[in-house]
Design goal:
Length: 261
């Protein structure tokens, strides 16, 4: 019963306007919210295209409805995940597992990137299987919505875990998550264009994931090192600044090589 009370107390903070005002008048909080939005956009930009492909078999007038219902479901999942997660992340084992997962996610990215080498072939996104279980159970329209909801949850796991590593403030997590989902659905093309122009940003996203994993591990009771929000935000700013410096250096190197040819 005490567990349920703790979780309900966490949800109560969503409606605590004094807490809300305190967080949202803090410039560092807005910096962290901005970080969550950018991180969500970089990690999930192509996910919006996958969802668009999943609904392409529906009549045009129903595609927007399916994506809209999926968006509502994504917000509901974030609300549940943040409320329960803020309580669970206090347990060192949960935090350790979350940090280990994020570290694995980042390391796997660099291993896969190294294996890929110069091979830039992309897999074609596949639409819904008309004979799939969800379609058979719920019909074409609602089965598609159910599939979109499940895909949204799968896409959100990485982002939610990373968010807990960035901040433990309810409103920072909620606002960052809500705006992040909206950015993923509404301006996915902007992030895809940005990644195309500055490809180093994709690598930066996974470097940030690794930094967040390290921050979570260092905060475990066995180590007990808590990195202040301001210092963490400065590290994030330096990381982004380094990304653009490396990008311009790479562009300059490419131009120099082309001139020598």
């Amino acid at each position: 019963m005490s567990v349920l009370n703790h979780i309900l107390d966490t949800y109560a903070l969503f409606f605590d306007w004094d807490h809300w005002a305190q967080v949202l008048t803090d410039p560092v909080s807005w910096g962290l919210i901005g970080t969550l939005i950018i991180l969500e956009g970089l990690l999930s930009a192509d996910n919006a295209l996958v969802l668009a492909v999943m609904v392409k078999h529906l009549p045009p007038e129903k595609r927007k409805k399916a994506l809209f219902y999926g968006l509502l479901g994504a917000y509901f999942f974030r609300f549940l995940a943040i409320g329960i997660g803020v309580y669970l992340i206090k347990f060192w084992l949960i935090k350790a597992l979350g940090a280990a997962y994020l570290a694995w996610l980042s390391i796997k990215y660099f291993i896969d990137k190294r294996k890929a080498g110069a091979d830039d072939e992309e897999e074609d996104a596949k639409g819904m299987n008309p004979g799939g279980l969800l379609i058979r159970l719920f019909g074409t329209f609602w089965g598609t919505i159910a599939a979109v909801e499940l895909m949204d949850i799968a896409f959100s796991v990485d982002s939610v875990l990373a968010a807990f590593g960035v901040s433990d403030q309810i409103w920072v997590l909620f606002v960052g998550g809500v705006l992040g989902v909206l950015m993923m659905r509404g301006v996915a093309g902007v992030f895809l264009t940005l990644i195309d122009r500055v490809p180093e940003l994709e690598t930066t996203a996974y470097i940030l994931i690794l930094i967040i994993a390290a921050k979570m591990l260092l905060s475990l009771p066995a180590i007990g090192f808590e990195l202040e929000s301001l210092h963490f935000f400065i590290i994030l700013l330096v990381t982004f600044a380094a990304t653009f410096i490396i990008h311009f250096m790479n562009k300059k190197k490419e131009s120099s090589n082309e001139n020598h040819l």
